[in-house]
Design brief:
Elements lengths: L13 E6 L5 H10 L4 E9 H8 L9 H9 L3 E6 L12 E7 L11 H12 L6 H7 L4 H11 L9 H8 L1
Parallel strand pairs: 1-2
Antiparallel strand pairs: 2-4, 3-4
Amino acid sequence: DALAFPYDTVPRGTVVVANLPYAISTPLLFKLLSAHHLIDRMVLMLQTEVARRLVARPGTKDYGILSILTQYRAVPSLAFHVSAGCFRPKPAVSSTVVVLPVRRAPSVSVANEPMFIRTVRAAFAHRRKTLVNSLRDEGFSSERIMPALEAAGIEPTARAMIPYLIVLVV
């Protein structure tokens, strides 16, 4: 079971080459990224939709939790697309191979990594809601949200964006 495997036991310098099961690709990718100190690079075949999310830039419709947390620990790039015609039986989805060199240090410096990850997940949990409502709905207290937004110069009506999250967490 790939989700139950203890990735913290792989040797330092491991390179992961895999066709991830599409149904569990996101949680499995997060497990692999949690072993960032042991894995040097990943070459993964994923559903194209997921691959696009990994490399998405801020402000695009594909940008979200997966983009931020992947780019925090790796430098993803699309390598090539794999035609559905290459498979038997032919799948209903397209596939893309991505290369993810793992960063030795995260893309941004945060004082509290678990809080950073929790904030990213909370902010994007309800994409259409304001940042205030999304954070509140995910268990952050109003007493902490409003002063943090004010101190960071973020309007209470703003929606989730990575520059806001970095300021809030740091």
